[in-house]
Write a structure and sequence with these properties.
Blueprint (H helix, E strand, L loop, with lengths): L5 H8 L4 H15 L1 H10 L12 E4 L11 E4 L5 E7 L11 H10 L5 E7 L4 H14 L7 E3 L4 E6 L2 E7 H11 L6 H18 L8 H5 L2 H22 L4 E8 L2 E8 L2 E8 H7 L4 E6 L5 H7 L12 E2 L5 E6 L7 H19 L25 H4 L6 E8 L2 E9 L5 E8 L3 H4 L2 H4 L6 E7 L2 H9 L7 E5 L4 H11 L2 H13 L1
Parallel strand pairs: 3-4, 4-7
Antiparallel strand pairs: 1-2, 2-3, 5-6, 6-7, 8-9, 9-10, 10-11, 11-13, 12-13, 14-15, 14-18, 15-16, 16-17
């Protein structure tokens, strides 16, 4: 369905605040369309809302503690029945939801009342988790959550409810209830508002507002977010919670590789994860190709069940992502100290005993290009996988692994992981690339191992780890292959390590 309507276009073109315009449009529709008003009441009937005389609708009227709810809905006796808060991508204010809930309790002596949040589909779960967290922090008990197709709600006592829905579900219900004859203008108005909501979900550049360009807090924040992960990793390494590796950037983030126990991860300012999941600008990401994702996912299962949720999968399932929750109203060192505490908790989860269903050897979670049946650990019980050379680049990582048998003979194989290319390239660029995770080998000599890496121009990548036993041989190969600029990168690693 085409998303570009006149209303949606004008809101973007003139860079007005879209939430305010959407609220005014919704209120206008509910005021002027009896069918839409009835459909709105019917939409909330599952929580027990029953207003035979209908509802009246007002926007931007002040409430308790100088709060300004988006829309208030009152019954025929003037009693407040529903407070509606409309969101696109703005965060919750300090008054939401607790002050609004207090107003519901104060204003309505009898009957059911609700605080309803209307949000994009992508934000529904996260906004709900934050609402529930703030309620519990304020001593407001949140009852059992009921999830219907179009509405999510919970009892908070005294016949009051918190509820959340999506723009698509609410407007779809209003549109379906609007008669083709009798209210054609209102039906078109709903379609226009639907167009704006779809527009807000698109990936295109949002029009800039003057206050954004002149607000120097914005660039300061981005600089702060870009620098924080490095300070967090440094402090965590000092406290022996991780090993700090090489700094790296990609189009939508900046951070540093770390090793937590036996697992390699990236901690950084991840703008894509922040935009799509909310929660935090700083993330710890584990990626397939560097560690056994199934095992990571199972070990961090508990973090998926807490509120707010602390563990997520990427859309393609190749990343496990853990947000670092940032303290508000705190000085920088307190923010770093609390982040390090969270890294420590993450390490404790990862250091837990492996479950029987998890892979006991990262090599078993991948298949080799040239010999799918090759499994070094299964060939000889004395074999152990060791990292010979680990390399990082903007598009992913490349690792040369080795195992030596009881007689001291080595076998080598390589793993490449280019899954971050999904973030760096568009669909046209990605088409035809095939699998972004692959293996090659095994081979029996170090020169053959270098040949496995050659198609990746490995000498131009950033060294993250070098096996002490092979350091001299690798350095000699680097000296032979590298340009002066590449050699400077390798030499800087040698000095650090």
């Amino acid at each position: 369905m085409k998303s570009d309507t006149v209303f949606g276009h004008l809101v973007h073109q003139f860079a007005v605040h879209p939430e305010n315009l959407a609220t005014e449009a919704l209120c206008f529709i509910l005021r002027t369309s009896p069918a839409a008003s009835r459909a709105f009441t019917e939409f909330l009937r599952p929580i027990g809302l029953d207003c035979p005389g209908g509802l009246s609708f007002d926007t931007q009227h002040g409430g308790l503690e100088q709060s300004i709810p988006d829309m208030k809905c009152r019954d025929g006796r003037g009693q407040l029945r529903v407070i509606v808060e409309n969101k696109f991508w703005a965060g919750l204010t300090d008054n939401q939801p607790v002050t609004y809930i207090h107003e519901l309790f104060q204003d309505l002596p009898v009957g059911v009342a609700a605080l309803l949040f209307v949000v994009p589909k992508a934000r529904l779960r996260l906004v709900w988790d934050e609402i529930a967290r703030r309620c519990e922090a304020a001593g407001i008990r949140v009852g059992e959550v009921t999830e219907l197709t179009a509405l999510k709600y919970a009892d908070i006592g005294g016949r009051r409810f918190i509820a959340a829905t999506t723009w698509g579900d609410l407007l779809g219900a209003l549109f379906a209830a609007s008669p083709l004859a009798g209210e054609p203008d209102r039906r078109n108005d709903i379609a226009q508002l639907q167009g704006l909501c779809r527009k807000m979900d698109e990936e295109e550049l949002l029009p800039l507002r003057g206050e954004e360009l002149t607000n120097q807090d914005m660039p300061r924040r981005f600089i702060n977010f870009s620098n924080l992960p490095f300070a967090m990793a440094e402090e965590a390494a000092t406290r022996k919670l991780c090993i700090r590796k090489t700094e790296t950037n990609y189009r939508h983030g900046s951070g540093v590789y770390i090793r937590i126990g036996e697992y390699t991860a990236w901690i950084g300012f991840d703008r894509i994860a922040w935009r799509s999941l909310g929660v935090s600008p700083i993330w710890v990401n584990f990626y397939s190709g560097s560690c056994p994702i199934a095992e990571i996912r199972e070990k961090l299962a508990q973090l998926r069940r807490v509120t707010p949720r602390r563990c997520f999968d990427s859309e393609d399932g190749r990343f496990v992502m853990v947000p670092i929750l940032l303290l508000t109203g705190a000085e920088k060192q307190r923010i770093i100290d609390d982040a390090v505490r969270q890294i420590g908790e993450l390490k404790a989860e990862l250091d837990a005993t492996k479950s029987p269903s998890a892979s006991t050897d990262p090599a078993r979670t991948y298949e080799c290009d040239t010999n799918p049946a090759f499994d070094p650990a299964s060939q000889n019980e004395h074999l152990t996988e060791e990292t010979i050379l680990e390399l990082g680049a903007e598009g992913g990582s490349l690792t040369l692994f080795g195992s030596r048998d009881a007689a001291g003979q080595w076998k080598f194989w390589r793993k490449s992981d280019e899954t971050t290319m999904r973030e760096l390239l568009d669909e046209e660029d990605l088409r035809g690339l095939g699998s972004l995770v692959s293996e090659g080998g095994p081979v029996s000599s170090l020169q053959e191992a270098f040949a496995l890496l050659d198609k990746y121009q490995w000498q131009s990548m950033v060294p993250l780890q070098i096996h002490p036993e092979f350091r001299s041989a690798i350095q000699s190969e680097v000296q032979r292959r590298c340009t002066p600029e590449e050699l400077a990168i390798w030499n800087s690693y040698t000095l650090r390590s």
